[in-house]
Task: structure prediction
Amino acid sequence: MNLHPVLLALCGFLAGPVAATLAAVVAGAGGILLKTEPFIGIYLMTAAATAVGIAAHHLLHGRRPTERDLLWLAILLSTGAMVGEAVLYLARADGNEGLLIPLAGILTFVAALVSGLTCIAEEARREATAATRFFRAIVDTLPDGLSVKDKDGRFLAANPATARHLGADRPADVIGRTDFDYLPIEIARKSHLDEQQVVLTGQPMTFQQTSVSADGRSMFLSSHKSPLRDEIGKIVGIVTHNRDVTEKKKLESQYQESQQLLADAFAFMADGLVIYDGSNRIVFSNNQFRELFPRTSDLRVPGTSLEHVLRAAVQRGEETPSGDLDDWIQMVLHAGRTNESRQFKLGDGRWIEVRDRRLANGGFLSVVSDISKSKLTETTLATMNRQLAVLAETDGLTGLGNRRAFEEKIEREFAHARDTGSALSLLFVDIDVFKAYNDTYGHLAGDDCIRRIASCLRGICNRPVDLVARYGGEELVAILPNCRRESAFVIAEGFRVSIRQLAMPHVASEKGLVTISGGLFTMDRLNPAGNVREMIKRADDALYQAKRTGRDCVISWQPFENDDMDVDVDETETETEMLVYRA
Result:
């Protein structure tokens, strides 16, 4: 019996057409070199078996072959073998060989099934071995302690982090030992009792406990213990994951202390203070705030919506709406996000002033003062509380973000763009010959000029993710996340044109009008930046080049020319190539 077609079919089935073709060629060449008796039927069977294996491989569509797939292949090959033997039997007309027909089918079926199962099992073994090594490498590199114990607390397995915590040189050294061999008896007893509780309940649990490191340092552990079960579900041990949360506990303690200090400070404030979240619900209010509104003090607590408080205040006669009730409520809600101040008279005759300040999280903070007593006292207290309410990231002149807001935003967006591969554009804007404008029109006019230009830039860069900030003096900056270079340039150029359309006279400028120069840098896959400082420098270099180019233009930093837009390259720049885009 010639069973090599079975191996060729399995080769095609498991390894694909290329391997099967090479194996068939080698088998045919070997037959010729060994001068075996040429018989066209054997070679036809070889070719047919190879073709069947390749066809079966394609039917898998890239998935792993299963025992069921192998069974169908074995049936198909055995059927083919019996058909081939039947053809040979008829060709030879030898009645003594008729028993070879079923024998060929049986041998082919068994050979295909056994050989195929062996290959599949070996592949599964290799994958299991690789997976075991992979997961072992992961466990060994974990910074947290991971261990497995039996129900009596003896270590069955441990990673290097566990060994280091116990003071052992290697994980193998702790196998068969218990916590009592390494830790102080009280700590070891506490850990053992926790493990017994997990064994008794059969439920995973997390414990907070103190411990001692190998060098004698006190530490605090968050220990998660889960029951280990065998195939029938019986608990045979405990899996423990220990995390050192000592620093976290210290930070939590410091945070609680600072929160208490802050609460004490708010409690001794002369004015009322209330903070709302992005849904206009109260998240904090001090006693003074509630005492200012005695008729609705029961509602002015965390969790209550401002709209509900206002409706109740009107219903109880504490406040009187100016106009329609719903319109008045919307006006109050809107005032909280526009950094406005408002004064109103309560039903008991007292006058109240509310100063709102928008917060970065979408909510707002309100400082509430009783201004019905002394104007002098009111002015002093209002100044102190206004300083408390002013957000650290707001520029007083323009209402834009200040330098601190810019630095926090650019660091955050730079990290996001670097991790996600999205584009991040940075636009620096400078008012052209602004010193001459101040000298000509005065500083008050200069401040008004800056405000108008800042308002225009904020109106153009109006996406929720954008940030427009005053970088310093007459220099503004815009952060445009997820904005490609071409789109950022359109925005920058539109801003430049809008400033010209404001038609603010500037007799000291050669343009006759107030103009701006812009420097743009876009960080993307083609133009990466190593850090935030490098990104700022490139945008600032582009702004400097815009000034040198003649002002009233926008220049985008690029290390090479790579688009179809009209580009003028300033050949005098030696440190960096600048692409100058003109409308």
